Each structure stands twice: as structure tokens, then as C-alpha cells.
Amino acid sequence: MIRRNPSGHLPVIAESAYIDSTAIICGKVVIEEHVFVGPYAVIRADEVNAQGDMEPIRIGSHSNIQDGVVIHSKSGAAVTIGSYTSIAHRSIIHGPCIIGNRVFIGFNSVLFHCTVGDGCVVRHNVVIDGCNLPPGFAVGSTERLGPKTDLSALPKVCFSAAEFSEDVAQTNIDLIKGYKALHNEF
């Protein structure tokens, strides 16, 4: 469902994107070329700041927002997700938040008030809250990163993790073609 927010903003969605019919895209949202938005995802830009305005939620080209993901923002803060980035099933991305290019965010992860640099791989059930993760780092499943986390203890992304991340992104790009071909059958 594509709908306006109370401020009157309507999502801007590239024609080449695929939005599942069960997804909800609301308000000041920009979805770029070849983005896949899976079943029951919610991308909602509807809260305003003290001045009554809001920044957009922007999903970069060739990225995928998988089943049950929720993307929202506090007080109109920006959420930016780069290109070729995967946000896996049931993750929560709550702005303010910046996620770079070619990033993988694993199942059930929660990100708030953070930056995740280009090429990072964040595994499953991770919480990143108030932390800026530099490019190219790997975060293991169930880790919690906050303002006092010693990031020097984190490993760099290995080849197999980067390859996995690229494979997930490409798989979802391929799904766009398949689902768009089926679109007229229902």
C-alpha cells in the first residue's frame, strides 16, 4: 500500500522497483531504481521535527528490504540506505540512521541513531545503537554496539562474508525481474 503521510508527502518510487502488495510505504520516502521491497515491510516517514518538517527515508538503487522489515524515523530525522544493500528479514532501522553501500544487515537486527559504513556485514540479531561503524567491518551475530564499544576489537569483513553479501543483493535484484513478470497474472 502506497499512501500519503499526515503532512501530505507521497512516496516517490522508481518504476523499476518492486514493491510487494503487502508492503506499506508511507510519506516522504524515496525508493530508487531496481529496489526490492518484500512482503509485509513497512517504510514510514511521517513524524516531523520541532519546525514541522522531516527528512526523507531514502533507499538506494539495487538494494533490498526483505520480509517484515520496519524502517521509521524519530522526529523527522533522515534515514539513508545506500546502493546494493540488503536489510534482511524482520530487521528494524530507526532513524536517524545512515547505512552505506554494499552493506548486509542480518535477520532481526535493530539499528538506531547510527552510521554503518560501506561494505560492512552485520550478522543476525545485532543491536547498533548510538555508534558509528566505519567501512569494511564485520559484526557477529547477537553483538551489541553502543557509544562505548571498542570498535578496534571488531574484525574486518572477510572475502566469504563480502561474497555472501553480494550474492544476497544479486538474488534480490533477480527477484525483481521474476515478480514483475508475474505481476499481470493476478
TrEMBL record:
Name of the molecule in the record: Carbonic anhydrase-like protein
Matching InterPro entries, A to Z?
Gamma-CA, Hexapep, Trimer_LpxA-like_sf
Q: What is the lineage of its organism?
A: Bacteria, Pseudomonadati, Pseudomonadota, Betaproteobacteria, Burkholderiales
Checking Gene3D superfamilies in the record gives: Hexapeptide repeat proteins
**Native organism:** Candidatus Symbiobacter mobilis CR
Q: SUPFAM superfamilies from the xrefs? A: Trimeric LpxA-like enzymes
Signal peptide positions (record)? none
Name of a matching Pfam family:
Hexapep
